[in-house]
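Inputs:
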Amino acid sequence: MAVTGVLRPGFVQIRVMDLKEAIVHYRDNLGLEMVSKDGEFAFLRAYDEFDRHSVVLRQAEEPGLDVLGFKVISDAALADFVKRLNEMGVKTDDIAAGDHPGAGRRVRFSVPTGQVIDLYTEMELSDNGPMTKNPDVWREEPRGMRITRFDHCAVLGVNIAASAEIFEKALDFVVTERAIDPDGNPVAIFLTCSNKAHDIAFLAGPADAKLHHASFLVESWNDVGHACDLIAQRNISLDIGPTRHGITRGQTVYFFDPSGNRNECFAGGYQHYPDNPIREWTVDQMGKAIFYYEKEVHDRFTSVMT
Amino acid sequence: MAVTGVLRPGFVQIRVMDLKEAIVHYRDNLGLEMVSKDGEFAFLRAYDEFDRHSVVLRQAEEPGLDVLGFKVISDAALADFVKRLNEMGVKTDDIAAGDHPGAGRRVRFSVPTGQVIDLYTEMELSDNGPMTKNPDVWREEPRGMRITRFDHCAVLGVNIAASAEIFEKALDFVVTERAIDPDGNPVAIFLTCSNKAHDIAFLAGPADAKLHHASFLVESWNDVGHACDLIAQRNISLDIGPTRHGITRGQTVYFFDPSGNRNECFAGGYQHYPDNPIREWTVDQMGKAIFYYEKEVHDRFTSVMT
Amino acid sequence: MAVTGVLRPGFVQIRVMDLKEAIVHYRDNLGLEMVSKDGEFAFLRAYDEFDRHSVVLRQAEEPGLDVLGFKVISDAALADFVKRLNEMGVKTDDIAAGDHPGAGRRVRFSVPTGQVIDLYTEMELSDNGPMTKNPDVWREEPRGMRITRFDHCAVLGVNIAASAEIFEKALDFVVTERAIDPDGNPVAIFLTCSNKAHDIAFLAGPADAKLHHASFLVESWNDVGHACDLIAQRNISLDIGPTRHGITRGQTVYFFDPSGNRNECFAGGYQHYPDNPIREWTVDQMGKAIFYYEKEVHDRFTSVMT
Amino acid sequence: MAVTGVLRPGFVQIRVMDLKEAIVHYRDNLGLEMVSKDGEFAFLRAYDEFDRHSVVLRQAEEPGLDVLGFKVISDAALADFVKRLNEMGVKTDDIAAGDHPGAGRRVRFSVPTGQVIDLYTEMELSDNGPMTKNPDVWREEPRGMRITRFDHCAVLGVNIAASAEIFEKALDFVVTERAIDPDGNPVAIFLTCSNKAHDIAFLAGPADAKLHHASFLVESWNDVGHACDLIAQRNISLDIGPTRHGITRGQTVYFFDPSGNRNECFAGGYQHYPDNPIREWTVDQMGKAIFYYEKEVHDRFTSVMT
């Protein structure tokens, strides 16, 4: 395969303080499909995803990111990644198959910025996923924000260079964009395992183990606008948008789930290839880098994290 | 790298019967940048491509496809592909570096359906490509059809299964969609080497070595509509569109260059991953497969090729 | 008021052969709101309309247009229109208030091409219409084809010049566009009573009292595309589209209701002012006039009418 | 005519401090056509307007609004307006034909909030206006922000009720939306003379004779986004956007010309009819009224005026 190794961010497990309220948000506002509910867990899926679920909500005392899961193309590739992680001194643990419904064995590790990452190769296909025999564009008209898929997370921590290095060296991710301070230290690193402009982003922050946002793909700038209409009409807590990123060129809107976890709906962004030059930003241009139109970043965007 | 092996369709070399007229079409209608002209050759590039050129026009007696070039990630990968091609009985030839301005060595072979394919690893970067230091979304406002990149070709021939097999077995392409006749014979095979829904398509046809269309990416359905406005206002020869494909879900318009080569502007299409099921079409649904809205294919689309 | 006299096409009454099936189409496919059902009549409304209803479906043996209703700004204006109609020899009848639920008195007349036209000044406001106190963009996310309003009808008949003359001379409509055959006879006349490119269209046809289509407004080219997706996915009978008109410049898709009445979803079109020149088309350019992209008209479009 | 009396805002005359620089902005950024230059005056026109010019720039010491011109349907209507203005105690002056190139006689008056208003019935047609014989959608691909027309102005002053009353009582404008403070005083009044959601807006402000913004129409939300891309890439001074208004529902971006005059590009907004209820806003909801997404207004928007 020309796309190999890590395929994509396959699921995100988010802590929410009121599971019922969170289900309403992710199902009715984002427009995800409710797949199953199991005690303190809820499992959801976007209409254009084949796998059983991509969003896991867990009832908890505090919001935040439990786990970010990446699907790997094969057990052989997974074994190789484990070997390389261990060789880099990254300890891995096994999560048994069935820990999540429909999901196979997962290999778990933590990055220096404190986030928990799972690698896995198996998840049941949804029986309501995209059609494959003489398929229609969708089974039913998309609703809510018309999310097509869970796309990526941006996470925060102190030593983002060390976390990014693990994704680069052990997992074959490629840096697409990077922002550097005058001393040469990275303040933001965007990495991809595909043709997407980013599959994970590390942002320098004051504390580790933090989630900046979980991001969901929509089809177009038009659907970003529609998401904004819904956010306004339903009094969802807006962070910023509609706007465009300098980094990735994605068209975007940020808002909060009822527990305060930041969500993003975004569209566009360029196609990346590993022979493309890295795009580099200087900190004096971080406003433009983050919000291409406004050219400045508001405090909430840099200070609110879960 | 998680994207490895063959990166993408890197250039297409098209035969045109009046080079001057063809340059006007590809530069002013499609909105490509004219890079250089060298005797019977012209080299052009879309604004969002890093490499020096992606479209080569050659003055010739007849229209058609000279060569479809695929960029490979490394010399090691290229050597491996050559070995595997040769092992499959596919003869390869070397084209020396510099045969095209700014281009490295190319390895050339032909597929059973008669098309000539080049593999290569090196091409100079354009000095007018996408910005990489605190980049803007583009250097100058896109014009014409606002093409962002050369995307793929669809080619015709008799034994498309044999051609597709070479891309699968020797070059690690993955079949994304396939249309099958009642006897189980493929009438259309779509393959990708990336997250795109297709990087090359083989269509069953009565003659070999034929081009169905060269396809160019635009950002959105809105830009497909704008391309149609230009086609109408400038009296460019329309084939069909705006419409949507069932296969790939791309939004599309087809038209002809002044020599009769079919061009496509398209947007959208899903992101493909190698763990996704193949989408399969039956020939009784080929109308829907090809033109999702019309659900039927007009004669010109199946009979005109170059 | 600067907009005075006839305000707009206020309702259309369409004959359908299966009321239940028709309700499903207009409510779920077009996305209209079901207002009330009363025997052989059903009343519906688009989400962005203030008046109680704008679409009336009547169970009948044959499809077609029962009545096209125009709302008039005041009783004084209505009385003046009646006087002028009568002076032109056009007989008017009164329909008592309450004949339609929530509707006031209507004045009815027929045009030489056989269509029945109602003029009226009063209709109850919907209690679910657009918000007026600190309003949101809509009360609920639009669904189906996301129709914002009933927009206009195009009707067919022999002596379209005579029908258009009544709208011009008695009702103060203005001709915006006109297509003329080599003998100077009109083959299509588009008239407006507002800033819209058309509020009614007369098309020359072999028979009188015919409906070509009832047209519904959507917000954008994007929503025209969405309507096409729905048409394809739900196997609604497509006529043609997505495409653009030369006349009015509207972006459009045509399809049929279950009884064979042609519907249109359209977006865009210019703003018209009475000091603008008339736009004129010659019959050799009727292809471009009707379908700006295709530049030709298919038989079904000119031969199928109800 | 059903659209009668005042037709539309026909031209705006704006003071600029560097005419050359201003021409570059309005011509290349907004994408207007340069019509003529005459000493301290420059005349421009949007591609979809029939009249000779709609934007007049005047070299001056200070930025701001010189005159807002409204085209009237007939001399009889103009004479009636003058009579009614004078009866209301509004003094009118005559500007002779030819004072602006290609323009007829204008009647000038001032409103209590200090703005100068011209009424006129005659202006030469542009020889490069929209085509009228078998017309294309445009003569040449729109460029820059792809402005289709000058649309309206919002102006500031102390006694906006008095100014609005003149437009209502003497000129037959209709109030479409209104924001009221707890004492019942209007803080914003939007009026239309057409089917547009507004043709002029009065905003309560601390000083008279002020311009809040001159607004230009674009086709779609997509073109609002494109305008934002241009604003960012060309370092045009952004005020706010892309966003949506609660009032009018228009999709919008605000920015400044080189002299500090605020410009708006906007799309959408509902169609208004004089039988529609007035939409009313309370001051506690002014954030939502003005910026539907952000639900708050930044200081610059309320304090910067010219």
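Chain C touches chain B at residues 221-222, 225, 228-229, 231-232, 238, 241-244, 251, 288, 292-295 (CB under 8 Å). Flag for discussion at group meeting.
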